[in-house]
Amino acid sequence: MFERLKAAREVANQKTELKKLIADCDELIKEPGQSVSVGIASRALNRYQKLDFGSRSEFYSQLATRYEPNIEHITRALDSHKEKRSPESLIELVRAVEPPRQELLRRLNRVSSGTAVIVRMREEILNALRSAPALAAVDADFEHLLSSWFNPGFLELKRLDWMTPAHLLEKVIQHEAVHEIDGWGDLRRRLEPDRRLYAYFHPTLPNEPLIFVEVALLNDMPSAVAPLLDRSKPPEVETKRYKVAAFYSISNCQPGLKGIHLGNFLIKRVAEDLKLEFPGLKTFCTLSPIPSLAEFLLKGPKWKSGRYTAKELSRLEADFKELQPNLQNLSKSNAVLSATHQNRLTRLCSAYLAQTAPDESVRSDPVAKFHLNNGAILERVNLGADHSSKGLKQSFGMMVNYRYDLDKVEQNHESFVSGTTALSKAIRDLIKA
Amino acid sequence: MFERLKAAREVANQKTELKKLIADCDELIKEPGQSVSVGIASRALNRYQKLDFGSRSEFYSQLATRYEPNIEHITRALDSHKEKRSPESLIELVRAVEPPRQELLRRLNRVSSGTAVIVRMREEILNALRSAPALAAVDADFEHLLSSWFNPGFLELKRLDWMTPAHLLEKVIQHEAVHEIDGWGDLRRRLEPDRRLYAYFHPTLPNEPLIFVEVALLNDMPSAVAPLLDRSKPPEVETKRYKVAAFYSISNCQPGLKGIHLGNFLIKRVAEDLKLEFPGLKTFCTLSPIPSLAEFLLKGPKWKSGRYTAKELSRLEADFKELQPNLQNLSKSNAVLSATHQNRLTRLCSAYLAQTAPDESVRSDPVAKFHLNNGAILERVNLGADHSSKGLKQSFGMMVNYRYDLDKVEQNHESFVSGTTALSKAIRDLIKA
Amino acid sequence: MFERLKAAREVANQKTELKKLIADCDELIKEPGQSVSVGIASRALNRYQKLDFGSRSEFYSQLATRYEPNIEHITRALDSHKEKRSPESLIELVRAVEPPRQELLRRLNRVSSGTAVIVRMREEILNALRSAPALAAVDADFEHLLSSWFNPGFLELKRLDWMTPAHLLEKVIQHEAVHEIDGWGDLRRRLEPDRRLYAYFHPTLPNEPLIFVEVALLNDMPSAVAPLLDRSKPPEVETKRYKVAAFYSISNCQPGLKGIHLGNFLIKRVAEDLKLEFPGLKTFCTLSPIPSLAEFLLKGPKWKSGRYTAKELSRLEADFKELQPNLQNLSKSNAVLSATHQNRLTRLCSAYLAQTAPDESVRSDPVAKFHLNNGAILERVNLGADHSSKGLKQSFGMMVNYRYDLDKVEQNHESFVSGTTALSKAIRDLIKA
Amino acid sequence: MFERLKAAREVANQKTELKKLIADCDELIKEPGQSVSVGIASRALNRYQKLDFGSRSEFYSQLATRYEPNIEHITRALDSHKEKRSPESLIELVRAVEPPRQELLRRLNRVSSGTAVIVRMREEILNALRSAPALAAVDADFEHLLSSWFNPGFLELKRLDWMTPAHLLEKVIQHEAVHEIDGWGDLRRRLEPDRRLYAYFHPTLPNEPLIFVEVALLNDMPSAVAPLLDRSKPPEVETKRYKVAAFYSISNCQPGLKGIHLGNFLIKRVAEDLKLEFPGLKTFCTLSPIPSLAEFLLKGPKWKSGRYTAKELSRLEADFKELQPNLQNLSKSNAVLSATHQNRLTRLCSAYLAQTAPDESVRSDPVAKFHLNNGAILERVNLGADHSSKGLKQSFGMMVNYRYDLDKVEQNHESFVSGTTALSKAIRDLIKA
Fold first, then answer.
1. How much is the ipTM here?
2. Whole-prediction pTM value?
3. Which residues of D touch B165 (CB under 8 A)?
């Protein structure tokens, strides 16, 4: 009885707080004085943070409807500009179209803790998008502003190692998305002299890595992930023997920054730094998962029309036919394949990745799309590279090396955008019939 | 002969470089890959920095015309949105209206040195505006982006003192705009324990103060500037005797950030910090110049209609009539005034400042407008406060104290915006007939 | 065969290296030029670090014999000084007596890594002392110099928390000597807001904590250790509720600094810092082990003659007689005692600690001696305070609170030195018959 | 009348304070507890700092007499050690001889500000030595301890430049002893990219440079000082052109550290650092004054017997005879000399420096002694190198380059110590008859 009363009171309370938050936002948008606006923004952010999930959802809906640009106003401004064609009429038009929520967010961001709150707001809006597609325009405004605030020119690249404060390393353990870190001993192996971990930070979030990349310094291009993570293996400290820098893991720490492409530039920056530090490095590559391979093959592969010659296609179909009975099995356990079957599986995988497209014209592997669009070369496909159950399930244990030739990154990227994927000779030979 | 050839070659060279810069900009706007775009942006900024004054002016014109939004495109997007009213059609419309130069600037800013270059570009555009009013829309875009990047949430407040690196102190000496600093000895007096100097910094410009404020910790509200700067006076170190914090100088260091109101918030932040450090402080005020007073009176004062009663107006006119013969003289030397004349001059000055308006409805003193809009109270007008020739020329040696009552800043600001200036009792009594 | 050859060669090699090291040391002592001596010292330290255990032992013996002061020389200098009584003759005498190995160590210390090596040398010499008592004079010289270099005026007190670099926290885990830290999760509990960890550092060893102390901020004086270390208990964050600061662990990290009493001053420094940060703290105490209690009782307690009255003594003897049959059992498991037996055991423990002496006149508990000599009060004895097998074995699970009354530390210390231990009223009452 | 009373009271007050200080010192020496001793030491240092000059002098006398070792005690300890020859008896003897003031100073140093006070004490004792030679033994103890605390292994080398905090640069301006710095503009020239300034710091005195050296990076070995200090000359920024690093000024900042040879090692450390940074550097040299040259010649030169052949001597005497009439004049103004006279003066100067001895056997130039003992080569003597009146007065405007050949520093030092000065071929040829 008492509990019900308390709940009812809480509901009423939330309603009042939401109303006050909206009132604050209305005031904030109108407020011409900057000094005063920081106080209002601070009050509004505090209020927002006390809202429960339901009230926050309601707040996001209000962002969509209440702080939309006004169509009549736009129409008038456009008509006026068509007539006058003056700088002033253009300024007027631009102002009329910009959704007022953009200015609202910019003003909330005047409080120093504002950026962190806005990033978390976006995370919730992204989650809500499926059930509330009307939020798409709101999300677009968040993405627009966040990509302006989190541009690479504002970010700071930092190397994390065993001298790094514990609370930052703890966040690395939490956020590692590709190859899970099993405690501090596991992490330490990844911070030894022959391993590197770099993260991007934003000045207003000094305690929050945004994205980090893990690198292994090796003698040869790696063909399997287990040796890279093996804690029992002593680190290679002879730096002259480092020939290859292998990027074996990239993890985003901020779901609210989805679409703000931090990773693209991170790899290139780190590669350039490593090249300076170890002039002996010859190869910069990844050891990457192929998350969509099993699904592609198990559903029956669809080859992109025009990508392969008839001869090539018929061989790919033959490969698939031969392998099909084994596929379910391969996705569950480490089965031993004959050399012929190994060859067939490698070719199917290579052909799948080689037809990756920059657009939606064909089903593409997301990791492949990321690296190829980033200017990498599809270098080598590795069987038995990841024996974990996740690795078996998503790609029959296969992994791939994308190689970054620093001098050709721009050129490869442009080729990819205009329809041609950069392939190593080995891959080309394997596919060519 | 040879010189002329060289000059001609240089002209041709500049033309080529400008063309290449435009080509880079075109490419940069279209480029979807972030990693690649940083390389292009870096190249473009290098090219820009090699252009001479004329070519840079031409580049700004191109920003105005080449990277304008397209009106047909806008019209179509608006029609489509009127029909669909969907999030997607809105996103499309917003994109169509945003001037492409905004995205261009955001992408140039992906290079870490980009922000500094963009601030200097804006400085030149502001200078060019008078002769090239068409740049107004370009300037509006710069201001829009810079105010998003230089919002107070991103800025860092730092106290500068004698422990501060010399190169930063040197910049303070260069940029002090109100009371010139005559060398390092002069500066040192302003960094003693009873003086404070605070500056705002942006994370990407760690070596460039953006704006700084100088504060004197005193026993009484100051009525003249000379004692504050007097190097021979020993510092007051008995902190319990600090009752008044007087802001006696605010200087902007970055002309390219004009209109990005950094100062408003700075005073409030510093006042709050000082209050925490010295709980005995009772009064936060300025000792400010009145740059437009002499001009207002010498041209024959215009009183805002409706601001003063008929009785008050007739007394102000009498005051002016009496003083007029002396005014030219007063603006040149430290003349001795009779008590009656002192009273008249004080009243005229007070009445001028008391009619300061937030808009252009009446001629207003810019410093008065800044502080009153910021929520300050017009507290006291001081005769003989600044004996420098600049002080005599602009305000017959008068200065004014604006007082910040931290609890009433918002309220005062709102009154000012709606037409009522906050006045101290002394000022009200003086004006009231 | 080959192995034997190799070993023989290694033996010969070690002999050569030792000889060269001695030659370097001879040269170093004679060398007047400081700049040159740093080079020699560096060479000598490198050579030393390549010696095996046996050769290092031989080196320490040489320190004892080869770098001793010369008795004839001393005799002559003393005779000369007796005759002249001049400053010069005194300087000569002081120089004649100082063992040359002191100057040798000072010169080895001119290399920046020298201090660390010398601390490790001392660690080995301390270990060797039992079998080689002749090293006592060498050890005295090491202790003399190290206590000059590691004096509290040179040390830096640092708080370690979750923001501290991981490599330093790892050293805390390794060196915790009182209550073992079981991994990073365990450590983190000890760094929460209601726990504190402070360490002393020397400027030349920035990566090596010398000694650290762990503190719990509590509402009441603690009577058992388990709740302090319990990871499942949420931290108390209401700082106003902190009444007691309990020092529950002090650990030395550098065995080579034995006898350099860093801990004494550390507790007082930390207590003063905490008092400033939390003015509500009323009590500064420890929760300390009693490592020698079981041995004292199991061997049959010896009471210090004159310390207790005949009546008190007879009651202590009665207590012991009653408890004796249970003692073996109590040192192995958590036996339940009757209230009477609890009382007896508490009294015996209190009486044992209360007779702690500053000298060797009676067997004393080392921890008691440390805190009482440091000016603490024997405040309370706690039954069942430490259920670990170590706790049962050394003190039947008992622990003790020593209390630091910051205003009486000097006075208590002086009393203790002159034979009177500071006791709480409760302890006094318990013992008094 | 009142003034006299006040003075008398002050005298009495000083006497009381001195007595209390001595009482504190007595207590401090006896105190076994470290924690307690820090409190006493702090009290004693405060008392000392309030003493006037006379009382402090009295305190130093007491250090000499009251805290001397006891001769009877020493005699007994020596007799006992002769008998026992045990480590314990040796320890006892060493303790008996060490002046108790050493332990007193070590204990005063337990307070963190102690080191600075002790350095200033020493400064006063050094000044007092002439009139109070009995303080020599006290001074020896200060020097002994300070050289242990300020050994190069504890010092930190820092480069000072325009990014350095102003208060440190101000100290450089104050302490420059060789070529006066005329304000901040003058200093700035010495911090440009082609100039370097390095200083040594002790961890307990982070705001006090101990000694600093100024270096010019040049194309050729410098023959005059004016071009090095010329503010109007733009800095040479082409680092590949740096062939010579010229140390043109070394200044001690702490008179209390006299005899603690910090400079010797500083030059070598800086040279090694510069060699790493600019591998193109071929020559490390000084441009040094010859402070004693004029005095040597004006008094009539005394040649070291056995240093020069009869033929050489007779030529030196002829040189002197020819030049003598001009010498007074040369020490006052920039007289023009004939080529022959130039040659003669250069030879006399070279011969004077070439006979520099490590001991007191012959009058030697102190700067020459410093560098030659440090392992430098007497490279070149420069006429007209310093036109300042100080330069004319002390050395007829001559300066000298000492060259540091990093590989031969040890060897040259050893030669010098055993009687042979390292000379360049040019100098050798000039002297050789």
1. 0.88
2. 0.89
3. 162-166
